From TrEMBL:
Gene3D superfamilies: HUPs. Catalyzes the formation of sulfite from adenosine 5'-phosphosulfate (APS) using thioredoxin as an electron donor. Residues 84-250 form the Phosphoadenosine phosphosulphate reductase domain. One of its GO terms (cellular component) is cytoplasm. GO terms for biological process: hydrogen sulfide biosynthetic process; sulfate assimilation, phosphoadenylyl sulfate reduction by phosphoadenylyl-sulfate reductase (thioredoxin). It is an enzyme of class 1 (oxidoreductase). Binds 1 [4Fe-4S] cluster per subunit. Belongs to the PAPS reductase family. CysH subfamily. This is Adenosine 5'-phosphosulfate reductase. It catalyses: [thioredoxin]-disulfide + sulfite + AMP + 2 H(+) = adenosine 5'-phosphosulfate + [thioredoxin]-dithiol. The gene is cysH. GO terms for molecular function: 4 iron, 4 sulfur cluster binding; adenylyl-sulfate reductase (thioredoxin) activity; metal ion binding; phosphoadenylyl-sulfate reductase (thioredoxin) activity.
Length: 290
């Protein structure tokens, strides 16, 4: 694979090798188009900002590095371009929000306000914003016209959960992320079988996806929250280790997969913002397994 065009970006402490691809400069104008009476035509670079080679390089660059050190380098050296945090304000969301806001509280926080959240989640969002101090909270809502057309009753979750997630999560996030080069997620490898091999850096549609907590376990998350006196989500103590929309989230028995309470009874483990699911066909998303 050819090496991408690189613009050097030094790492903290003077360590070399911290470089990421930058958009290529527009090519020189065609001389035949610059004569008097003609205008040079600018060419816009529409190629992806990041490639798989960049994810490999970043994973190698930060392998074994402390999470705080990694985030400090990425943010202080502006290695990511325009970046945002995607947060569910769920069970462990406070950790990532605190880590990043402690370095740069101006990083935008994107919250998918689906209209189906537990009231406790909405209250928790306000509590964390006041406690942690991130300054740019953006609430993403579904398109009203699409919602009226595809889920006028508000019950699509009950027969087509993939379609419901597509309307209320996937499409609003896709629209919002169009203006960013990179996103931070709070995913952890221990959360589900679908995330066991989760790397710190991934590429999705030319955008960098950063998973700073990929290698954190539950004990480390709990210790961080205790050390920094971060409030837990109020539903955690009630038996909800993974919290999504209220119709599709149930309690989990001790020892079960933390995400087993999500879409219980359906052959579904992800909402679609990180893994593709079916589209808005009129039929059911998948066959129930109960």
């Amino acid at each position: 694979m050819d090496e991408p065009n690189l613009t050097p970006l030094p790492l903290a402490g003077g360590v070399g090798g911290g470089s990421l691809p930058s958009r290529s400069h527009a090519p020189p104008p065609n001389p035949s188009r610059t004569r008097e009476g003609n205008r040079a035509i600018d060419r816009i670079d529409t190629s992806p900002r990041y490639t798989e080679a960049d994810a490999v390089r970043l994973n190698n660059m930060f392998r074994g590095r402390d999470t705080v050190e990694m985030l400090t380098v990425l943010l202080k050296e502006n290695m990511l371009g325009d970046a945002a945090i995607v947060s569910s304000f769920g069970a462990e969301s406070a950790v990532l929000l605190h880590l990043i806001a402690s370095i740069d509280p101006t990083v935008p926080v994107l919250f998918l306000d689906t209209g189906k959240h537990f009231p406790e989640t909405i209250s928790y969002r306000e509590e964390l914003q006041e406690r942690i101090g991130f300054r740019d909270l953006r609430n993403l809502t579904p398109d009203p016209a699409l919602l009226a057309e595809k889920d006028g009753t508000g019950l699509r979750w009950s027969y087509d959960p993939d379609g419901c997630c597509e309307i209320r999560k996937v499409l609003p996030l896709k629209t919002a992320l169009a203006g960013f080069d990179a996103q931070f997620t709070g995913r952890k490898a221990f959360q589900a079988s679908t995330r066991k091999a989760l790397p710190r850096f991934e590429i999705e549609e030319g955008r960098l996806k950063v998973n700073p907590l990929a290698d954190w376990d539950k004990a480390r998350l709990d210790a961080y929250m205790a050390d920094h006196v971060l409030p837990p989500h109020p539903l955690v103590e009630q038996g909800y280790p993974s919290i999504g929309c209220s119709p599709c989230t149930t309690k989990v028995a001790p020892g079960e997969d933390p995400r087993s309470g999500r879409w219980k009874g359906w052959d579904k483990v992800e909402c679609g913002i990180h893994s593709d699911v079916s589209t808005l066909d009129d039929g059911g998303a998948n066959d129930p397994i109960f």
